[in-house]
Amino acid sequence: MDDARILELIHRELDADLSSAEQAELARRLLQDPEARQLRETLRQTDRRLKSVPQAEPPAGLRRAILSAVRLPGDGSRGQSGTVGGRPALRYAAIVAGAILIAGLGYQLLDSGRPQPGLEGSVAAPALAAAAIGKAEMAFDAGTVRARLLQTGDGARLEIDSDTTQDVTLVVRFDPSLMGYLDGAGTGGIAQDGRLTLTPGTGRQQQTIDFDGLGPIRLEVTSGGETVAEASLPDN
């Protein structure tokens, strides 16, 4: 996994500078790499907290001193093994983000009486447009079920398009530690312990399922108590 590329995509996401293709690329990388997801969350928290800090003028050279003391992966401090000082590069980057946050907050607390501009976090990204990160088509004797998974900011949306001649059941499996089913999505489904059960009905039906969080999804179509089709999203 290209750590430098992940860092670039996350930083550009915070600056609202990602194209639709890059949003989809970042989503795929996050789904495949738990450390990348942890780093992204750390950087997002750092960004939010820095933005919430009242403005204050740091001592001259504080920023330069911090940045010059830190050598991020890709600037010569990283070896061929992809580690920095024995730690994985992504974990090291998360530690750096925390250190910069602590330094900035610490100075602001010491100097809260001086409301001067200066200490600024990066601009938080606005809500991102939905970016498709996977799709699947499941064909079986009684019809077809198509699914598309999209990233919607911090969450995910699953779009289901079914066309069947008999009743089927669609089971959506997800990791509840990464994703939460949003009640009130209008699906009529029942969610429990990372399993959402839907009964779309016969004919052409369309449903949209929203989740809080992002993670891989497993789809299963059953008919008469037997699994007749299945797929995973994203599909790579």
Strand order of the largest sheet: 3-4-5-10-7
Q: Tell me the fraction of residues in β-strands, as a range.
A: 25-35%
Q: Helix proportion of residues, in percent? A: 25-40%
Described by its quaternary structure, the protein is: single chain
Mean pLDDT, rounded to whole units?
74
Number of domains: 2
Distance between the termini: 15 Å
Give the total of beta strands: 12
Gyration radius, rounded: 22 Å
Uncertain runs are: 73-87, 112-128
Overall geometry = elongated
Largest sheet: 5 strands, antiparallel
The total count of helices amounts to 5
SS-based structural class? alpha+beta
N-to-C series of helices and strands: HHHHEEHEEEEEEEEEE
Short descriptors:
236 residues, alpha+beta, Immunoglobulin-like, five-stranded antiparallel sheet, 5 helices, 12 strands, 31% helix, 32% strand
Task: Describe, in plain words, how this protein is organized in 3D.
Helices cover 31% and strands 32% of the residues. The protein has 236 residues and is α+β, with helices and mostly antiparallel strands. It has two domains: 3-110, no CATH class; 131-233, Immunoglobulin-like (Sandwich). The strands form three sheets. The chain has a five-stranded antiparallel beta sheet with strand order 3-4-5-10-7. It has a five-stranded antiparallel beta sheet with strand order 8-9-6-11-12, with no helix packed on it. It is elongated. The model is unreliable at 73-87 and 112-128 (pLDDT under 50).
